[in-house]
Amino acid sequence: MLQSTEVAREKPPRLVTPAVQVRAREPRVAAEETKPCIVASHLSAFFGDTAAVRDVSISIPQNAVTAIIGPSGCGKSTLLRCFNRMHETVPSARVEGSVEILGSSIYGENTSPIAVRRHVGMVFQRPTPFPTMSIRANVAAGLRVDPKSHASRGATDEIVEEALQRAGLWSEAKDRLDESATALSGGQQQRLCIARALATRPRVLLLDEPTASLDPLSTQKVEELVYELRTTVTVVIVTHNLQQAARVSDGTAFLLMGELIEFASTSEMFTAPKDPRTESYITGRFG
User: Fold this and answer.
1) DSSP character for 62?
2) Between the N and C ends of the chain, which has fewer C-beta atoms within 10 Å?
3) Checking phi first, is residue 46 left (phi over 0); if not, alpha (psi -120 to 50) or beta?
């Protein structure tokens, strides 16, 4: 599992603040929870000579939602971008260490970043539908960059419907598929972006503060979607909202100044964190 800084100390039985309530989890098969999906070993990410992520080792389980929390500028989004090789698209950026997804190294010498991203979808903070494309074309866009995809129109329509169903958008969009994606509301656009990521049937879905620009009702719909998706895909979500992490995630990782301080089940993280820095953050003493 992960190596994290632990400080020996006496802990009260409950440290969580009343405002952070951990969602009751459905029973899970223990073996599935321990099966790793993403394994990072001594991962560091740089912008020039500046390290944004420092020597992170973590094992993220399959078919679960893992939240990454921490104060602004702690490296949360940079770590997420390392999981689908988007960090290296920034000029002067580089990565050290290793990342394996389902046993395959994504930074292997002959591994294509484009191939990695077909299996590791990503959704950003603000909805990013392609403005000149219809709803249907937006969802199908990822299929066109896959050289192995030569789906007929009928097969593509089936994939589009499946993706919109999984994103909880089909009932709202099925009669508007040929309309511009920009005709959708902000919350619908974000679920459209999730559908677009799901259309290529990824094994992993990365979400970088996906509800930061949404209203409360749209946020609730996206959170419910994230919670349901864990049955079929591994989800990693970066969030600044501790209540959101408590509501949707099975496990939570706490980053501080680019270092992984602690990684534990969400219930343990929010009730009995092992590191005093984690306790200080979740109780609002800083951040």
Assistant:
1) S
2) N
3) beta
Q: Where are the alpha helices (DSSP H) in 9-144?
A: 30-34, 76-82, 113-119, 135-144
Per the CB < 8 A criterion, the answer to whether 266 and 272 are in contact is no
Q: How far apart are CA 80 and CA 35, in angstroms?
A: 20
Please state, as a whole number, how many other Cβ atoms lie within 10 Å of the Cβ of residue 159: 20
Other C-beta atoms closer than 10 Å to the C-beta of 185 total: 14
Q: What is the pLDDT of residues 208-263, one digit of tens each?
A: 999 998 999 999 999 999 999 998 999 999 999 999 999 999 999 999 999 999 99
Query: Which 3 state secondary structure label does DSSP give 93?
Result: strand
Cα gap 153→137, rounded to integer Å: 11
Rounded-to-integer distance, Cα 72 and Cα 155, Å: 43
Spatial CA neighbour of 264 closest among 7, 9, 17, 68: 68
Residue among 102, 196, 192, 92 at smallest CA distance from 144: 196
Q: Which parts of the chain register pLDDT below 50?
A: 1-15, 17-19, 27-33
Q: How far is CA 119 from CA 6, 60, 137, in A?
A: 34, 16, 20
Rounded to a whole number, what is the distance in angstroms from the first to the last CA of the chain? 26
**Cα 150 from chain centroid (whole Å):** 29
| Residue 2 Cα distances to 140, 220, 247, 254, angstroms | 37, 31, 23, 12
**228, 24 contact by CB (below 8 A):** no
Cβ atoms of 112 and 106 within 8 Å: the answer is no
